[in-house]
Amino acid sequence: MALDSRVPQGPIKDKWTDYKNKINLVNPANKRHIDIIVVGTGLAGGSAAATLAELGYNVKAFAYQDSPRRAHSIAAQGGINAAKNYQGDGDSTYRLFYDTVKGGDYRSREANVYRLAEVSANIIDQCVAQGVPFARDYGGLLDNRSFGGVLVSRTFYAKGQTGQQLLLGAYSAMNRQIARGKIEMFNRHEMLDVVLVDGKARGIITRNLITGEIERHSAHAVVIASGGYGNVYFLSTNAMGSNVTAGWKIHKKGAYFANPCYTQIHPTCIPRSGDYQSKLTLMSESLRNDGRIWVPKNMEDVLAIREGKKKPTDLSEDERDYYLERRYPAFGNLVPRDVASRAAKERCDAGYGVNATGEAVYLDFAAAIDRYGKEQAKIHNIENASAAKIYELGQAIVEAKYGNLFQMYEKIVDQNPYETPMMIYPAVHYTMGGVWVDYNLMTTIPGCYCIGEANFSDHGANRLGASALMQGLADGYFVLPYTIGDYLADDIRTGKISTETPEFEAAEKEVKERIEFFVNNEGTNSVDYYHKKLGKIMWDKCGMSRNEKGLKEAIEEISQLRKDFWKNVSVPGGSEEYNEELAKAGRVADFLELGELFAKDALVREESCGGHFREESAEESGPQKGEAKRDDENFAFVSAWEYKGEPKEAVLHKEELEFNDIELKQRSYK
């Protein structure tokens, strides 16, 4: 199958408008005869389900959680980007477009990114209308803050709980449609396969996670909005239930999987504290607006801090290495996530890590508290304010901006981050790779769409902070509702799709056989045993840096681990009941296939770009020494993998990337 991105012709600023003017539409009276399945009800799936139902389609929405409110989108903290230029600091649609392409290390499709920047302002208006309580400035206008990789303030936020508030907005819109009967909501249902009829996606097979019942659901189109695959690493900032299963099932039925090696390591996470941990906790990137990142300059201070003989507050400014400010003076602590993560790893690998494991750096708010305190003293006309008063006033400002994040840190670490610097270390966070989609957001399976983090996205090889929420809501509210109509216009006379067909029968049989295998296999090892082993291989050999030797080893080790899994996995309990271990077994089985394809993709891409850092491809001299070195001549393409059985047999298809509106050049944040 030849890849066709279906990008419209014409100037980039006119593509989306001209495209919408010419696509096929579905008459409002005909929409009520068309069914759409949406798998996943986070920001992308929830906004899509609500908007499609509002348009008049009949929507079936599926969530493995007990409520759409529990989607992992709720965990997003720092904010959502939009080019509204409220700060008057030079932002524009073009600048958001440019920053996103540059931040993604020039590995994204220009037309999609420009469209994302174009509709970003509409998202904010939509969410304000829904009642999302964005922060406001002293004049009542919506406030903005900065995030990494940009030189403007374009991030709208609601304290440190922006994802939660945006999800509640989408959930409210969904509830309106559920009450009208336009959305049929299936909580605690997991999609286990897609059904193709005459080559088109016409339904899914699900398991009721409470009763174990296997169900058939039909529709004229299927939309996958199931989030990212970061849990392939076992330890990540993702919710423990987050998985790749929906995306992987459609991949095995013909949807190409793109750029699996593009995974984001977030620089500001609470460090791992032991082998018993099942997940990691994110500290929002917004903290880097005011927090300064450092390690001690001198090794004797590092050792003294590790041994408890010194506190970080004992070190003077001259004894601290603010390494991001030193290495990247133009952007300082607000360099993109991949750059900040590698810089932290470099310092810790050199022996300067400040916790017992040697895998932590400091995120310090003392300077911000002092700065804000002095500013507030002037505002309140307090002359000769004492140090204690300045601290009190400054802390109040920091608490107003980040209070819930500080509270969360203290609950987990049992240290007061107002009084002692936070300890942070990079951790797996977001996946830029995912199911390949064209300009319409349709996969290589006709009638099967993929939106939000589940697709290979608009973020290239690295996502800028606060752009995940932007992409999810753009796809759901403003892109998919247009493009899906162009496809469904041919289905207005199709009528109801029957589930009593050989295709549904075969898919259901396959799902049941797999479940029966798990509950009947008399193995000796738990599902987590395999998941942890996979995660260690992934982190050690496909983590913040990769090399040819390690990737070849990873491919073979994962292949062997998968064979052992199918022989020796043990799943307690039965299939006709609530059985979390059974659900987990299916998800880990898919991770064991994805992990191998991930390593294969990383091996083929013999360059460094964004979150994919090949040790053989680093700048060797000059001001960029040690930074990622792209190879635009040979690797300016999207890797789209076709399933052929074993992951090592997958076939690579290339979507060549064109850069007509942005100059292709090496990234620099110095």
From TrEMBL:
A Pfam family assignment: Succ_DH_flav_C
Q: Please list the residue ranges annotated as the FAD-dependent oxidoreductase 2 FAD-binding domain.
A: 35-469
Tell me the active site: R337
Provide the E.C. number(s) assigned to this enzyme.
Answer: 1.3.5.1
Q: Which InterPro entries match?
A: FAD-dep_OxRdtase_2_FAD-bd, FAD/NAD-bd_sf, Fum_R/Succ_DH_flav-like_C_sf, Fum_Rdtase/Succ_DH_flav-like_C, SdhA/FrdA/AprA, Succ_DH/Fum_Rdt_flav_su, Succ_DH/fumarate_Rdtase_cat_sf
Which part of the chain is the Fumarate reductase/succinate dehydrogenase flavoprotein-like C-terminal domain?
Answer: 531-669
Top EC class of this enzyme: oxidoreductase
Q: Where is the protein situated, by its record's location annotation?
A: Cell membrane
Cofactor(s) needed: FAD
Q: Record's Gene Ontology CC terms?
A: plasma membrane
Q: What GO molecular function annotations does the UniProt record carry, in alphabetical order?
A: electron transfer activity; flavin adenine dinucleotide binding; succinate dehydrogenase (quinone) activity
Do you know which Gene3D superfamilies this protein is assigned to?
FAD/NAD(P)-binding domain (3.50.50.60), Fumarate reductase/succinate dehydrogenase flavoprotein-like, C-terminal domain (1.20.58.100), Succinate dehydrogenase/fumarate reductase flavoprotein, catalytic domain (3.90.700.10)
Note the PANTHER family from the entry.
SUCCINATE DEHYDROGENASE 2 FLAVOPROTEIN SUBUNIT, SUCCINATE DEHYDROGENASE FLAVOPROTEIN SUBUNIT
Similarity remark:
Belongs to the FAD-dependent oxidoreductase 2 family. FRD/SDH subfamily.
Stated name of the protein: succinate dehydrogenase
Q: Which organism is it from?
A: Polaribacter reichenbachii
Q: What gene codes for this chain?
A: sdhA
